[in-house]
Amino acid sequence: MQMIPILLFHWLVEVSLAAYAVSDLPTFAKESVYFSQRDIDFDPRVDNPLMREMIMNLPSDVDRPGIAQYPLGPMVSCSNIPDDFLRCESIPKHTVPLNETGCPHFGGTKPSEIAWTNVSCRVLGSIECSGSRTFSRERPCVKYTGHYFLSTLLYSLFLGILAVDRFCLGYSAIGVGKLMTLGGLGVWWLIDIFLLATGNLMPADNSNWEPYY
């Protein structure tokens, strides 16, 4: 007697399903067709208002951006990758004429005095980005050859009479004259301290002071 309600319930369910034809389910059928016919490059993130505005403002002859060029996503242009994730060529060691690629001169104590040149850079293999992975980036024409400002200034203060500062900077001929005259009887010694402190006495090879970091 206890099984009769259960059997009756199963019979009612089977009768209901048989009477409800598949053609009476337009919602599910249309939805399945909609997803199956989507374009493979469909990007749901274009629903973002900023993305829609950018696409609407593009000229008609410009291809619409895909996922790789999505400006609000995590994948950025390779040319905008920070220097820490790049491998770049070394700056040329020799100067070149102004009409050639390279450094017309090296060094400078002010930003306006420093020349710039382009070097080829490549994004590290483990970094994902859009666009070409090899590109040019500007680099300052600055080289370092092991000269430290503080060390040279201390040499000039305490050993300037013996021209140790001039020898360390690479001015050997001038250093001999300064040594033979004992720092120009003290006058030359004071002048070199002043020139160092004001940035007017730099290494003879046109290199910059080594940074302290």
From TrEMBL:
<dbReference type="Pfam" id="PF05154">
    <property type="entry name" value="TM2"/>
</dbReference>
<feature type="transmembrane region" description="Helical">
    <location>
        <begin position="176"/>
        <end position="197"/>
    </location>
</feature>
<dbReference type="GO" id="GO:0016020">
    <property type="term" value="C:membrane"/>
</dbReference>
<protein>
    <recommendedName>
        <fullName>TM2 domain-containing protein</fullName>
    </recommendedName>
</protein>
<feature type="domain" description="TM2">
    <location>
        <begin position="147"/>
        <end position="194"/>
    </location>
</feature>
<keyword id="KW-0325">Glycoprotein</keyword>
<feature type="signal peptide">
    <location>
        <begin position="1"/>
        <end position="18"/>
    </location>
</feature>
<keyword id="KW-0732">Signal</keyword>
<comment type="similarity">
    <text>Belongs to the TM2 family.</text>
</comment>
<keyword id="KW-0472">Membrane</keyword>
<keyword id="KW-1133">Transmembrane helix</keyword>
<feature type="transmembrane region" description="Helical">
    <location>
        <begin position="146"/>
        <end position="164"/>
    </location>
</feature>
<dbReference type="InterPro" id="IPR007829">
    <property type="entry name" value="TM2"/>
</dbReference>
<keyword id="KW-0812">Transmembrane</keyword>
<dbReference type="InterPro" id="IPR050932">
    <property type="entry name" value="TM2D1-3-like"/>
</dbReference>
